[in-house]
Amino acid sequence: MDLLVPATALAAGRVAYGGGLALAPGPFAGVWIGSRARDPRTQVMCRGLGVRDLALGAGALLALRRDDLGRPRWWFAAAALTDATDLLATLVAG
User: Fold this and answer.
1) Domain residue ranges of the chain, discontinuous segments joined by +
2) Residues 6 or more apart from 59 whose CB is under 8 A from it?
3) DSSP summary character for residue 76
4) d(CA 15, CA 35)
5) Cα-Cα end-to-end distance for the chain
6) Across the chain, how many H-helices and E-strands are there?
7) Helix (H) or strand (E) holding 53
8) Closest listed residue to residue 58, CA positions, set 7, 14, 25, 1
9) pLDDT tens, residue by residue, 28-83
């Protein structure tokens, strides 16, 4: 199975969500954390997470354009690690 198409879609989705979270944290973070997403202090953290996701997605997209398939694996592994950390933090927060 060719994984290039779903990998590209996943990376592009991360760029889109990360960009949205960085530029408009209220609406994008509201799905995840509810009404607290409107708090300016919370938005600072959300913008940082958005830039992180945008960078991870962009790095994966650039790596997918190369012939060496080992490079994208590191980007997707880093993204999976950050997603797992976000999930754990969300569960701990209740």
Assistant:
1) 4-93
2) 75
3) H
4) 24
5) 39
6) 4, 0
7) helix 40-64
8) 14
9) 898 888 888 999 999 999 999 999 999 999 999 999 998 666 789 999 999 999 99
